[in-house]
Amino acid sequence: MLREEMQEVFIVAGNTHQEVERELRSARKKMHPASSDEPPMRKSSILGKKTEVVEDEAVEGEYGMVINGHSLAYALQEGLQLEFLRAACMCQAVICCRVTPLQKAQVVELVKKHKRAVTLAIGDGANDVSMIKAAHIGVGISGQEGMQAVLSSDYSFAQFRYLQRLLLVHGRWSYLRMCKFLRYFFYKNFTFTFVHFWYGFFCGFSAQTVYDEWFITLYNLVYTALPVLGLALFDQDVDHRWSFQYPQLYTPGQLNLYFSKRAFLRCVLHSGYSSLVLFFIPYASMHDTVRDDGKDIADYQSFALLAQTCLLVAVNMQLGLDTHYWTAVNQFFLWGSMSVYFAVTFTMYSNGMYLIFTSSFPFIGVARNSLNQPNVWLTILLTSILCVLPVLAYRFLYMQLRPTINDKVRHKVRQDKTPPTAAPRRFQPRRISTRRSGYAFSHSRGYGDLVTSGKFLLRPVRSRPPLFSRSQPSGSPVAEDSPQIFRTITEEPSA
Amino acid sequence: MMASSYNAKEEDGHHSGASGPCGAAVKSKKPDNTAFKQQRLPAWQPILTAGTVLPAFFVIGLIFIPIGIGLYVTSNNIKEFEIDYTGIDMSSPCFNCSQNFSWNSTRPCKCSLPFSLDQPFESNVFMYYGLSNFYQNHRRYVKSRDDSQLNGDTFSLTHPSKECEPYRTGSDNKPIAPCGAIANSMFNDTLELYYVDPNGTRTQIELAKKGIAWWTDKHVKFRNPGSNNSNLTASFKGTTKPVNWNKPVYELDSEAENNGFINEDFIVWMRTAALPTFRKLYRIIQRKNSMTPTLPRGNYTLEVTYNYPVRSFEGRKRVILSTISWMGGKNPFLGIAYITVGSVCFFLGVVLLIIHHKYGNRSNNSDIPN
């Protein structure tokens, strides 16, 4: 965590409030000489409420900080909190040593409250439980210290090094899949709905649906359910080995690029455009038209069939553009859904179904009579191409002019063709004997006083008599004889 | 604490097969190392490169433009003639009929419109009546029908569905057959076509009224009630005609094959249109032989029995005579759309090629910033 490249590592080990404050302030001034004494608060944008979020401050160079439990007790008090937060956030790494479990949780909560960040806490022992529960994401390590951390965590695994995989591979893929799924789901449903808005102008605003009622029922349930599920389960932008190779791929997730308000607006505009194409092209091509044997094709039922087929083909082509990782399952879901659509349509519009359930299936004969017209298929082809081509052009253009980190890595993957070999794992020498880290006793005075001082409790505590006093003659002989230097903590009434 | 059961072999977190304190084999918690569960399924990973996108644009452009030209040329070769006979202008022959309309008039109003065809119409000529500003796609209108009744179900004949309200029961509470607003507003103008010779003699052009509805409609969807079609009057006993009709449904035609619910004009009307401007097939003028054109060049007269009022909702009525091709009636839109999209696609391909040439190496640079 502390590296050679760090310019300086600040040690905060003050005994009193003023000392700690001085140390923190000097650290901050050294890192960012021009920083003001007032913490830079984020401008509030929600209803004029004052926010408590502290802005990030950029520094030149890398710094580290080490702070121990005593000083942390002072640093987490009301007046010094923000000072500590600012100084700590300017560093690349902060080590808090000899802290109590509650202090661990308090540090996490401090960051959560005053920074727009997602916090992750990882620990392996029972003393990490409060920290794990306080953070947004809690990771527990199972094994040596027992299962307490695991039981209270969101994710758990057996070794610390698996954290890299959790973040860079699984976390990243999860974010990507979730955002793609959401964007596509909104797109297909907005497109489906906006078409009715345009039809309103031509049906006297009587809320007549463009599509068959059965299509509306089965659209989200059957026809477009499995392909998008396949996208959300299996999609990967790059391999797991490449994900390790390029940790920079993680930044889009940190910046929330894939599903921000702007991305949602883009999705809505795209749906608007698609719905215009999906209504007006069939409208114009069916306007005052007839079949090739002169009979009717511009009737409501044939128009509905045409519109719904165009919609389904267009949204499935869009899904095809969105999917970056075509497994056999994805292929099966996509082509399977299209064939199920045609199978169900022909079944529902057949003679048999009409004769059994007359009022439920009034669309009899429509599929046979309109899907054998070349006119209809040419319209379907035109609408789907017109829906998909702008997206293709837009994405290609962006890739040429402003490639994202994702685009670059994917191009490199394609060029190299061979996956990178995993970095050889540095094998640590195996520990031969068991090692325990919990002790039932201590032969030095330790920090019991710190714990019982109540300095950092959230609720003000009634003052208690000190547990250990130096004047007791029957004090622990070990404490008297010990050559170690230890601190005394004088009891102060809590603020 | 669990320190006592700790085993050095469990260093790597592998609990596979490690013996527990009692020596029995512990079930492994390690997930299967299959391709499916470890997300290593073999997959095709396409990527948008210039080598795939640009040819796609050019190919689409090159395919669409000829298709568009073909469609446009075909559409232009279709001959179509349209004549509006609503009678808005004072100079129109049908002006009097449109003004003096009333539902109860027993004497039908007739008007005749002369027109001339510049080009002969070959092969089968289809005669349509067209309506404008008529919202057959209004939601309440579309559901105002009873498909079971129209399919010949005897129970539904005398108990029409509630969707048909307020056209469900007629005078003295008898059920209406066919019920609903769609049936009630059936188009009932009669149109006749006469060819006027250069020397003035009028010959009536034969209009075929069979084969204008979909086969599935005529033979499956619409059936007359009762077992045999011979005595329709008896089959429809207990029902009354729709409010705005002149004669009941079993008197629509003298032929039994075209009477009752399976009357083809009725079936064509019941197939509601999707848009407020539509045309419906009225009659077919069969071609005589391949030598003579079906409708030669010259003067014609259209005789209209004006029964259908459209002035109240500012609608328009028209007659359309049209030939047919493999793409249907005359509709230049699809041809023009294909040509436009094809050329835009081609142009876009050229633009993207230029952009790729100038800036395209940005994504190929292996400079991936830290």
Automatic annotation (TrEMBL), chain A:
Keyword Transmembrane helix: yes
Keyword rRNA-binding: no
P-type ATPase C-terminal domain span: 150-404
Entries under PANTHER family matching the protein: PHOSPHOLIPID-TRANSPORTING ATPASE (PTHR24092:SF177), PROBABLE PHOSPHOLIPID-TRANSPORTING ATPASE (PTHR24092)
EC class name: translocase
UniProt EC number: 7.6.2.1
Reactions performed catalytically: ATP + H2O + phospholipidSide 1 = ADP + phosphate + phospholipidSide 2
Entry's transmembrane regions: 181-202, 214-234, 263-283, 303-321, 333-357, 377-398
Cellular compartment(s): Membrane
Polar residues: compositionally biased ranges: 485-495
One cellular-component annotation, GO: membrane
Keywords: ATP-binding, Magnesium, Membrane, Metal-binding, Nucleotide-binding, Translocase, Transmembrane, Transmembrane helix
Membrane topology type: Multi-pass membrane protein
Name of this protein: P-type phospholipid transporter
Automatic annotation (TrEMBL), chain B:
Pfam families: CDC50 (PF03381)
InterPro entries, alphabetized: CDC50/LEM3_fam
GO terms of biological process kind: lipid transport
UniProt entry keywords in alphabetical sequence: Cell membrane, Cytoplasmic vesicle, Disulfide bond, Glycoprotein, Golgi apparatus, Lipid transport, Membrane, Transmembrane, Transmembrane helix, Transport
GO cellular component: apical plasma membrane; Golgi apparatus; transport vesicle membrane
Cellular localisation: Apical cell membrane; Cytoplasmic vesicle, Secretory vesicle membrane; Golgi apparatus; Membrane
Membrane protein topology class: Multi-pass membrane protein
Predominant cellular place of this UniProt entry's protein: membrane
Chain intervals for the UniProt region annotation (Disordered): 1-26
TM segment ranges: 47-73, 333-355
Family to which the UniProt record says this protein belongs: Belongs to the CDC50/LEM3 family.
PANTHER family per the UniProt record, alphabetical: CELL CYCLE CONTROL PROTEIN 50, CELL CYCLE CONTROL PROTEIN 50A
Protein name: Cell cycle control protein
Organism: Coilia grayii
